[in-house]
Structure formats: structure tokens, C-alpha cells
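User
Class, as today's exercise, I want you to study this protein, comparing sequence with C-alpha cells, and judge whether sequence predicts the C-alpha cells.
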Amino acid sequence: MPTLITTELLGEPPRLSEISTDHLLSTSWIRGGDGLIGFGTFAKTTVSGPNRFIEARKWWRDQLSKFAIHNNVHGSGTGPILFTSFSFLDSSESELVIPEIIVGQKNGQAWITWIGSGPQPEIQQLLAEKSTASIDWHDGSISNDAWKARVADAVSRIKNGDLDKVVLARDINATSSSELSRRALIQRLESQYPSTWVFLVADLLGATPELLVRLSKSMVTSRVLAGTIRKTNDEQKDFALAASLAKSSKDLEEHEYAVRSVADVLSPFCSSINVPDSPFVLHLANVMHLATDVTGVVNESAAPVDIFTVMEKLHPSAAVCGTPTKTAEALIIEIEGMNRSRYAGPVGWIDARGDGEMGIALRCGEISSDRKNIRLFAGCGIVAGSIPEEELAESQSKLLPMRTALETI
């Protein structure tokens, strides 16, 4: 007998990150107050290997074939939702989660989706969670000096003509005196970084500024970030820094590689595509990025395209891997010195129509099974003009969102 899925409109809900049900918080995708938050787990699985995106699509379609969907709201993000967190490399496991209850909100409209034949679940509002936990910090897979040496090695290979760009990542570890609250971390990140997508999937949690792909009906969008400068929180100084970033040959070169890689992938799927001539400067709380929104109209006369199709072709982009892709990936495996797991992999949600939003898992941490440890990640794009000390400082800026959230919950 099919499993009943029901979606109904809600009255105006409280802040999504403050919503509670009788099920545990399991997933989130929130930006500027809008998005989706999930509770409980109806089904989950893992996939790995070079066909992990194909296997994920098959598993999702198998699940959908068992559902009797009664969607009285319609639109992107309504009905049953699959939350996904894919690994950076195909050798690691990717996580797929279908929550039992999902509350969504977009442009002032709110809805609830639940699985099962019972009545509409009750939701309530919780106040922002507080914690008295103390945090102890520990080195990651390699020391700061060792990581700078790897950056220098990468710069040398780029200057020798081996490749144009490579993204090198590093990690640090934190231990908490008590269990970490996923809700408190989400609330803190949402408050401090409202222009990012705050995500939670299988205990990978963070606030990413980078949208790998959004597919909504026939419109496809990808926000590319590459090129970073730290903010001082002095308005005049930051205005000058933004201007220097926009003119930086090193950062513009890094950005051009990333934009070109995305546009080249999207073009075969689209009847038209728009790539702005120059990037804009995206201001976040702690850093500024060069950013470009690549948009296109999916060619409906071609073979059907869903978000799995586009995601498989886009990942890994030059923004998180390098150029040429295979050469950069091989260098990452050779010298980076750590397992990225799901860091820098696609993360987000997919609906029953194959539409969805997938970010790149940046500014994030992976919580341990006992919820008392978390591993944080940051990465930097390395090109010929990169200076190891400056790249280390940039990586520390990119760790700041999660560090701040942990130290203030």
C-alpha cells in the first residue's frame, strides 16, 4: 500500500529555526528566513563510488514510486523532499535523508508536509537555545606550517605549468564539554550570516555562501565564488578593500577559472545562458568574495534534465577543486593531507519534480556521533600569485563563522 504524503498551507509560522515538533530536528536549508526545515527520518541511505549521483537519483525515484502524494500547495520545495550531502571524492560516502515532517516558507507563504496517515503534526516555537559548554580547540590533520608548505608546493607546480589552479583545504577539531546543539548552531549561523544558506544534513552543518545549482522549472542558476578578502568592520576601509578585490589580478584570475568551468558545463543543457562580463563583490559578515551568478534556460527540446544531471556535471567545479579538474583533483589527493569527506561536496534538497537547490558544503563542520566533537573545514584557491602566509590567513577567516557559532552558543 502506498505511503501517504500530505502537504498543506500553514498560517504564518515562527522563525524556521525555532520550530519544534515531537520529532528531532534532522535537516535544514534556510536563507534570509525562507527555506525548509525537517524533523525525524522516514528513510535514509548512503551512496558512494563514481556513480553516486545516478544511484542517488534511482533511490529517490524508488522512494517516490511508493508514495501517494496529496499536495495542496504545489510549487518548488513542496511535497516530499530529499535532503542530500554528497562527498567531495567518490571514495567517501554520501548521505541521503527523507524527513518525516518538513516545514517550508517562501515569500510569505508557509506549508507543512508530513508522511503517514495521521493528522497534521503540531508545531511549536522554541526560544533561541543557550549553552554553557566550553570548547577546546585542537590541530587538524596537519599543522599550519605543514599546510603552508603544501601551498608553496602547489604554487611551484602551477608556475611550472602543471596546472592553472588548485584548491587546498585544511581542518581543525573542537571538543565540547557537553553535547553540541544543532539547533543553537543553526540559529547562530542564521542570525550572523543571513545571506548564506544554513544547512544541516546527517550532522554536516554550516552556512555556505555558494550555490552550486538551483533548478526551478526551466531556469537554472549557479552562484560562483572565487577570490576572497577579509573584512575589517571599518566601513571606509572595507569599501577600499572591496575596490582592491575587484581589481586584483590574482583574484580575478582565480574567479575567471571558476566561472568558465561552470558556464562550460551548463551550456549544453541550455537554449540560452547569461554570464556577466565582470563579477560583483559579495559582502558577508567576515569576508568579501568576488561573485558571479550564471543563469540559463534549460533546453526543453533536449533529453529531460533534472538536478542530479546538472549536479553530476558541475561537481567538482574549479571553485572547490581547480583547473584542469582532473589534474587538480590528483594533486589534492597527493598533497592535501586529509580526507575531505563531505566538505566541498554538493549539499541541499531535491523535490519530487527533480527541482531543487544544491549548495557547496563550505563554512561547515561535521559533528561526531556522540555530539561532543566537531571537525571544521576551510579551503583556498591557489594560483601562481598565491602567498602561503596570506592563504593561511584567508583559511582562518573562512573558519570564523563556525568558530564563532561554537564559542557563543
Summary: Residues 3-124+134-408 form a domain with the Anthranilate synthase fold (CATH 3.60.120.10). The chain has a mean pLDDT of 94. The helical segments are 52-64, 144-159, 182-192, 235-247, 249-266, 307-314, 325-335, 388-408. DSSP finds eight helices and 25 strands in the chain.
